[in-house]
Design goal:
Layout (H helix, E strand, L loop, with lengths): L1 H9 L7 H33 L3 H9 L21
Length: about 80
């Protein structure tokens, strides 16, 4: 996600028209959606495998998913993140 954010921000000076802005924003939002939906699938798999392990439950509650310092700890309940 950091790389795609850098590519989007780095291209800001090159976007010259509304269509380019729309395409860049839709492309960026699309790749972010794919990244979060992949994280959701991984989280489901890890919960099936390690869900009863107390160490995993502690890790699950304390570790942010995807973005460091943003307190989003789980995306497993977001049903719209199915890609």
């Amino acid at each position: 996600m950091l790389i795609w954010t850098g590519i989007f921000v780095g291209g800001i000076t090159a976007y010259s028209g509304a269509l380019q802005w729309i395409a860049a924003i839709l492309g960026y939002l699309g790749i972010i959606y794919v990244m979060f939906s992949g994280a959701r699938r991984l989280e489901e798999r890890q919960t099936r495998t390690y869900g009863n392990d107390p160490e995993y439950q502690e890790y699950f509650r304390k570790t942010p998913i995807m973005i460091l310092f943003i307190p989003l700890y789980s995306v497993i309940n977001l049903k719209w993140l199915v890609a």
